[in-house]
Design a protein that fits this description.
- The structure is a single chain.
- This protein is α/β, with parallel strands linked by helices.
- It is about 30% helix and about 25% strand.
- It has one domain: 3-Layer(aba) Sandwich (Rossmann fold).
- The chain contains six helices and nine strands; from the N terminus they run ααββαβαβαββαβββ.
- The strands form two sheets. Strands 5-4-3-6-7-8-9 form a seven-stranded mixed beta sheet.
- It is globular and about 50 Å long.
């Protein structure tokens, strides 16, 4: 991976843009400084890698807009050493951001090719999350409970397994809805029965699919 001063300069500009758009968490902005987004994209996109755009990553999937990644990460409010479950590894960029923040990350991807490519890229950057090929609706009970769970695809409903795998006090950040738009939602587990629900406006994600692909 080649990370030049030019790339670093482009990252700084992106961080200023994210700050202007309302991302204020310093640790999140620092993580964007550390992770080379161009590394997660096809080389033909390198020049646009630090613009606030989504790109195709193969298998009909996209890497989320940097703003969306930053916004979701900020909603998690995470601390170093916390255990985080991510649904939808995709390119692996968001996974790397969580690792850069010092979280212990478990991430699940349903497309085998994306899982393989993300695994190799993240390893080359020196991060050590636990990555799985599988169905995110089921979560990953063997690593539960989680301090936070982050869903990076549009969920038609809130999967019960994810709620069960969250610690009391933990947060589930999930874009809910089918079609073109989802409502960014944060659920906080008050106790085993009670949840606090907050919403943060419309976003657009690829759908969370039910069947595990090849
Ligand atoms: N966090 C990613 C976003 C990728 S888009 C990034 O930064 O690049 C969302 C991803 O969710 C896609 O790769 C898609 O294949 C995956 N996905 C969709 N349904 C899923 C499911 N049920 N379980 C796990 N991953 C799923």
């Amino acid at each position: 991976m080649i990370d030049t001063y030019r790339h670093k300069g482009m990252r700084r500009k992106l961080i200023e843009e994210l700050r202007a758009m309302g991302i204020s968490a310093i640790d999140v902005l620092d993580a964007f400084d550390q992770v080379p987004r161009h590394f997660f994209l096809d080389s033909s996109f390198t020049n646009q890698a630090y613009s606030n755009m989504a790109f195709q990553i193969g298998e009909g999937q996209t890497i989320s807009h940097p703003y969306t990644v930053a916004f979701q990460t900020q909603l998690l409010n995470l601390n170093k050493g916390q255990r985080i479950l991510e649904i939808g590894t995709g390119s692996g960029f968001q996974t790397a951001i969580l690792c850069a923040l010092g979280a212990r990350v478990v991430s699940i991807e349903r497309q085998r090719n994306l899982y393989i490519s993300a695994k190799s890229k993240i390893a080359q950057l020196g991060y050590v999350p636990n990555l799985f090929f599988g169905d995110g609706y089921k979560g990953k009970a063997s690593y539960a409970p989680y301090d936070s769970i982050l869903v990076t695809c549009g969920a038609p409903f809130i999967p019960e397994d994810l709620k069960n795998q969250l610690k009391v006090g933990g947060r589930l950040v999930i874009p809910i809805g089918e079609g073109d738009k989802q409502i960014m939602t944060r659920l906080t587990k008050i106790n085993e029965e009670e949840w606090k629900t907050e919403t943060f406006g419309d976003f657009s994600f690829v759908p969370m699919l039910t069947k595990t692909a090849k």
